[in-house]
């Protein structure tokens, strides 16, 4: 198959994740919200991972630079990134100190996971046929697989847990959480959850159904839905003039 044609689906993901990361990073620079920082980290990882995949196809998967680019793609995109998306969801509803503790723990796990992926043995015949596929089964079994399962599970549980938590708050008629309408947090996390599920399904289809050709298209759809969710979560409600008096103060945790 033509190399240019094979580069097109990953290129769509590069554009989507690049725009996504730029928008959220700008929001973080403007508002300094921790969850925006963690989502920015995850999105930058996704952007770098997909860019590395494209670079690998250009230089040749089985060349020395190609193998390093594959490891970079797999470490960031397949192993570490989902857990940082989950950390962003935790930062959306948790106290700053708890979020920082989670971030320190996740940073350690991410570092260990990256070392395992860099040290893993590559199945070179499989790598030579990676074009257009996610590269499932290219790394031989090892500790990296355990860390990948752990980090992906933590990320998905965090996203799903926050979605359920915000839904519970809505049922209790709590109008807002951290300055954001509870209903908006529910919809935001439902979109984030759906996007994360789609990204996970892409890999599952590749592994169990052999549908490698739709992997990157499903990933692009997942990122777009995630983008919508993060934008919803980042849009804060403005207080009306009747809700604040000139003497009123806003707690630090609720300031925009």
From TrEMBL:
<keyword id="KW-1133">Transmembrane helix</keyword>
<feature type="transmembrane region" description="Helical">
    <location>
        <begin position="214"/>
        <end position="233"/>
    </location>
</feature>
<feature type="transmembrane region" description="Helical">
    <location>
        <begin position="101"/>
        <end position="122"/>
    </location>
</feature>
<feature type="transmembrane region" description="Helical">
    <location>
        <begin position="72"/>
        <end position="94"/>
    </location>
</feature>
<keyword id="KW-0812">Transmembrane</keyword>
<feature type="transmembrane region" description="Helical">
    <location>
        <begin position="37"/>
        <end position="60"/>
    </location>
</feature>
<feature type="transmembrane region" description="Helical">
    <location>
        <begin position="142"/>
        <end position="165"/>
    </location>
</feature>
<feature type="transmembrane region" description="Helical">
    <location>
        <begin position="186"/>
        <end position="208"/>
    </location>
</feature>
<feature type="transmembrane region" description="Helical">
    <location>
        <begin position="6"/>
        <end position="25"/>
    </location>
</feature>
<protein>
    <recommendedName>
        <fullName>Histidine kinase N-terminal 7TM region domain-containing protein</fullName>
    </recommendedName>
</protein>
<keyword id="KW-0472">Membrane</keyword>
